[in-house]
Structure formats: structure tokens, C-alpha cells
Amino acid sequence: MKCPRCEEALPTILCEECGKGIPERSRFCCWCGSPVRAKDEEADLSERVLCSDGSCIGVINETGVCNICGKPRAEGTA
What we know:
The chain is low in regular secondary structure. The chain contains no helices and two strands. The chain starts with 11 loop residues before the first strand and ends in a 55-residue tail after the last strand.
């Protein structure tokens, strides 16, 4: 499957319902409309570290910064 804008090849997965190729991080199949189950759907959310900025909804990623605002993890947070 190619990107409609830049013609670059998109990484694809197969739809579990119809078997056709769909873009890798799709939520629904673009051919049959079936919902796509994420591989990490049952992730343990108790291990996440929330952003220390009180108005941000992000979480601290593996590089130590918030995935939304980019603010680094505050000292003293796990």
C-alpha cells in the first residue's frame, strides 16, 4: 500500500477479518471496516509515569520526556 500524498510504501499488516493489507497502525480495516485489535491492547497502565505539568495529559516516554508537551520528567518522580 502506498501513501496517497508522497507515494512512499506504507508498512502494512493483514486484517484478521478479510485478509487484505491495511496500514500498520490502523484502528479499522479500510476494506471491510472491521476494528483492528492492537498488539499492546492489554498494556499495564499502572507502570506509566504521568507528565509533571498539571495541565498536560501526556506520559513520560522511554527517553524521559512527555510524549505530548516534551517536558522532561520532574526530579523525584518514578
